[in-house]
Specification:
Blueprint lengths: L7 H12 L8 E6 L14 E11 L2 E8 L7 H14 L4 E7 L3 H9 L3 E6 L8 E7 L10
Parallel strand pairs: 3-4
Antiparallel strand pairs: 1-2, 2-3, 4-6, 5-6
């Protein structure tokens, strides 16, 4: 895959547009570009295949946000890196996922990769209920064995 976009202003703007994410001083994220792009081609947010962002760092937890535009480019490497950041770099013990209940595909995907649904808040999503999922570091199968 091409070099990812890591400029936090551009990455945040992407998450704001795609998910309605509100500004936060603790936002961190990366946008992985489609690998079909020539290396010398200018990078544009329209070329994002997969984006992963984090915010809400409170105690030993953070919120993870994921946008998958091109599922064929979503890899185990990206998934592993997505969990290495909060658990190994930021020192979190729990990652929280927040998904609108109308996005059942995202809820199902999160559960397949190891998240557990812990609550629903009625009428708190953009369109439906807000589904709250969590993954504990001890449950994460995506971290490399030491």
């Amino acid at each position: 895959m091409n070099q990812p976009i890591t400029q936090q202003g551009a990455v945040f703007a992407y998450f704001n547009e795609k998910l309605g994410l509100h500004p936060s001083d603790d936002f961190r994220g990366v946008c992985h570009l489609s690998p079909h792009l020539p290396p010398d081609m200018p990078r544009a947010m329209d070329d994002v295949a997969v984006a992963v962002g984090y915010n809400g760092f409170i105690g030993r937890a953070c919120c993870m946000h994921v946008v998958i535009n091109r599922p064929e480019y979503f890899s185990r490497k990206i998934l592993r890196e997505a969990f290495e950041y909060p658990f190994l770099v930021a020192g979190c013990e729990a990652v929280i996922g927040l998904v609108d209940s109308v996005n059942q595909a995202a809820v199902d995907f999160d559960k397949r990769i190891g998240f557990v649904e812990v609550a629903r808040i009625a009428h708190a999503g953009l369109e439906g209920d807000l589904v709250i999922l969590r993954m504990l570091r001890s449950e994460c199968r995506w971290l490399r064995a030491n």
